[in-house]
Amino acid sequence: MRFPLSQPSLGEKESENVRDAMASGWISGTGPYVSAFERSLEQRTGRTSATAVSSGTTALEIVLSALGIGAGDEVVVPALTFAAPAAAVLTVGATPVLCDITPGNWTIDPDAARALLTTRTRAVIAVDLMGHPCEYERLSELEVPIIEDAAQAHGARTRKGPTGSFGIASVFSFHVNKAITSGEGGAVLTDDPELADRVRLLTHHGMNPSRRYHHSMAGRNGRMTNLSAAVGAAQAERWDELVAGRSEVARLYRARLAGHGFSPRPAEPWASPSCWLHCVTSAERDAAVERARRSGVDARAVWPALSDLPLYRRYAPRPCVHASEVSRTAMWLPTWAHMPPEDVADVAESLL
């Protein structure tokens, strides 16, 4: 493809950090760059504890386990999202309950979520979909623990604070297509000290930090390596630059595509969304994707609604009509920080 869907913005600082980690011989988990990356995430979100882990999916699995969620429990999950939240719920032995989205911002609908609550509901995973924050004030009224999945929303905000700061815990992903990357990686953030301790124990094999090889719970190796964190720590120093770079690409796309039948994803006045991958909707989405791909542009249809997939369909107690509609009409366009304006113009032209 001439234009990939995304690519990382890596500079000399990332290379310098990796060389330093390699020279020290400390390339696995728990190294100094891991700690530095965790501190930067705490400062960015205002959270009191951040634990860097191997992926955003691992972060979801660990926080669910740390909350004691398992067999017999239910967790409400939006029907429009990458599959990781629902898969994480199944991985810990619980049952995902798929919920429709609100058409005004494409995030989980608080009213629809309320209608799905039962005596077995233990949490709601609220996904800040494609950079748009969820309605956390309304979700808090559900009176069940909220887990914020901010994997796609680095740098977004509401009037109440930045993404990553909401709910009993929040998670980030630092996959290579995210605005801030460590190649692969994730993090769990919380202000609850007891929950933070359980998260760290689960991440580090359940091993007592003061008594090596004494295990107080059945944990796993969910750690981020020092090499990955070396990249992540450098990226965190460039957070504002990288987030702003993608926002500028989104602005250029909006200008280029105005009046051509492509609508940008909706946003609420109370939110300041960030750009993960620029997303547009079109009644002729599939034809536009095909035209772009013939021109060497890695444009992609968004995920199918989970409620429309055979694997997950049985977990949707009610129709998820808005999720299905967005999944049929929305598409992503190549997006990365500092994408040249002429590349944006070529991608936009390929759709027409």
UniProtKB/TrEMBL annotation:
EC number, UniProt record: 2.6.1.102
Listed Pfam families: DegT_DnrJ_EryC1
Gene3D superfamilies with a match to the protein in the record: Aspartate Aminotransferase, domain 1, Type I PLP-dependent aspartate aminotransferase-like (Major domain)
DNA repair keyword on record: no
PANTHER family membership: DTDP-4-AMINO-4,6-DIDEOXYGALACTOSE TRANSAMINASE, TRANSAMINASE
GO MF: GDP-4-dehydro-6-deoxy-D-mannose-4-aminotransferase activity
Source domain of life: Bacteria
Family the UniProt entry places it in: Belongs to the DegT/DnrJ/EryC1 family. L-glutamine:2-deoxy-scyllo-inosose/scyllo-inosose aminotransferase subfamily.
Cofactor section: pyridoxal 5'-phosphate
Name this polypeptide is given: Perosamine synthetase
Entries under InterPro entries matching the protein: DegT/StrS_aminotransferase, PyrdxlP-dep_Trfase, PyrdxlP-dep_Trfase_major, PyrdxlP-dep_Trfase_small
Source species taxonomy: Bacteria, Bacillati, Actinomycetota, Actinomycetes, Kitasatosporales
Keywords annotated in UniProt: Aminotransferase, Pyridoxal phosphate, Transferase
